[in-house]
Structure formats: C-alpha cells, structure tokens
C-alpha cells in the first residue's frame, strides 16, 4: 500500500491552487498527468473508489515530481481528499464500449452522479465543477439539478475536444499550422454536433473565403461535409482501436481548468445551461463561452447561418429528449 503524504501547511497569506480529479481511470489519470506536467496547480488530488488503483496512480505520478514544477500529488477513496479544491473535475462514469453511443451511457452515469455529488459538494462547496464524463451535456444538466450549484460553477467540457479535432483536420487539409485555424464545434458533444463554418477562419481569412495553397483541395460543401464526418466519427475510431479516448481529452480538460484558475477570460465551447441563446433555453449545450475564475460566464453570440442555427436547435432538442427520458 502506497503511503499518501499529507499536504504540508502553506505559509500564512499564501495562495496555492488545487485540482481534484474524481475517477482514476484512463481519462482521470491522464488528466492528472497532463495537469502535473503543465504545472496547472500546486496540488493534484485523485479520488477513486478503487483504493489500490488510486494509490498506484498517485505513486507513479509522485515518482515523476523531479521532472515537473513543484507540486503535491495525493489520493484517496475518501471524498475528503477534495477538500479545499479550486476545481473538481468529474471523470468517473460508465465506460463507453465499441459501437455504443454516448446516450446509452446516460442512465448508469446519472445514477453515479446521484451517489457521488453530495459528498463532493460537502467536501469542496466553493469549487468550480467540470464534468468530463459522457454523455456530458445530459450529465451536466443532471448534475446541476442534483447538486444545486449555480450554472457558472458547474459545467461540462462540451465540444472543446471536438473543436480541437476540427482544427487539426482543417490544418492538415489546408497545409497550415493548427494554431492558424480558428473554428468551433457547437451543440451536443455527440452525433448531432455541428460545425460553425460561418465564424471559422484560417490565418484571419474567413474559412468560406479560403483559397487553397500548395495544391490543397478547396473547402467546398462536399469537403466540409467530409471534415465534419471525420470529426464526429473520430471518437468511435479511437475507442474501437484502443478502448478509450484519453490523451486529447486530458489535455482539453486541463486547458479548461487553467482558464478558470488563471482567470484567462478565454472563449471556449464548453457545455453550460443556456438561457435564451438564439431562443434555446433549459438545456446544457456547447456554444462559445467566456471561461474565467467565475467558471463559465457569458455565451458568445457568434454569427450563424440559417442551416447552422437550425442544426443547433435540432441538437438542443436531441439532448432535451434524453433529459426528459431520465426525468429532468
């Protein structure tokens, strides 16, 4: 059994940061590793019902502390390990199997939220809560109802990862660096998600006006449809090949956490409870939103075509139908 050290007391008046990761599976442990290597917080706490697993993950992470920024890594099967956390990241949930839709996961994961959220909120009542478990939009809505937390302080990772996938595919197609591509996926983190082509750009050029360079194919409607399909299908391909997605989602969640801890006021397509966003209300959905120390602040009303807006509304209805199926 690994010995998990207590976090030393900090000098009076000092301010350090703490991330609590709930779930030490593939996503949770990878997220903790990403946060440790990026120096995202001074303390990283892992919580999992499997004490042997969480002890092993903590010990493995501790053995790398010589090569990272100064940090403390702790873990337990007791929610008290989350006490004092600035951000609690919930990765625990049913594992998605090859060919299984995210919606199929909803019932088991919502049941788990009913079990674990009260204890987490009791241990870390002032934390910001980030949901990183599928189906994230439905689970986020359920978690808000179960926890009673305000919408600003509990939200989901949404389509931050999907938007990264979109930018990677577009960068490869256009022969440019990923950092030169600005584009969002919105709506459900799932099959009904949409690409916001109208607001996308490459190197400052509106994507719909982009002139191919170096022999790249033009980004016409057919190519855009191929790109969108590749983005939607990518998670299923990864799960079929290795059983889980973990690296990119760990990095994506870490960037969301940093936007909160560092008060970055970064615009990210996280999943939050909408209130009259282009007429859409009472559903958790991903749209570009301001993320800062408050958590998720205001959504940004990016320009949308009629087709994109119709797609967003259809996505909202798809998610809302699942919510109703589970009594929300």
From TrEMBL:
Its main location: cytoplasm. It catalyses: (S)-lactate + NAD(+) = pyruvate + NADH + H(+). Its EC number is 1.1.1.27. Beta-D-fructose 1,6-bisphosphate binds at residues 167, 182. The active site is at 189 (proton acceptor). Residues 159-321 form the Lactate/malate dehydrogenase C-terminal domain. GO terms for biological process: glycolytic process; lactate metabolic process. Residues 17-156 form the Lactate/malate dehydrogenase N-terminal domain. InterPro entries: L-lactate/malate_DH (IPR001557), L-lactate_DH (IPR011304), L-lactate_DH_AS (IPR018177), Lactate/malate_DH_C (IPR022383), Lactate/malate_DH_N (IPR001236), Lactate_DH/Glyco_Ohase_4_C (IPR015955), NAD(P)-bd_dom_sf (IPR036291). Substrate binds at residues 96, 102, 134-137, 162-165, 245. It is found in: Cytoplasm. Allosterically activated by fructose 1,6-bisphosphate (FBP). NAD(+) binds at residues 23-28, 48, 53, 93-94, 115, 132-134, 157. It comes from the Bacteria. Keywords: Allosteric enzyme, Cytoplasm, NAD, Oxidoreductase, Phosphoprotein. GO terms for molecular function: L-lactate dehydrogenase (NAD+) activity. The modification Phosphotyrosine is found at residue 236. GO terms for cellular component: cytoplasm. The keyword Phosphoprotein applies. Pathway: Fermentation; pyruvate fermentation to lactate; (S)-lactate from pyruvate: step 1/1. PANTHER family: L-2-HYDROXYCARBOXYLATE DEHYDROGENASE (NAD(P)(+)), L-LACTATE DEHYDROGENASE. Homotetramer. Catalyzes the conversion of lactate to pyruvate. This is L-lactate dehydrogenase. It comes from Promicromonospora sukumoe.
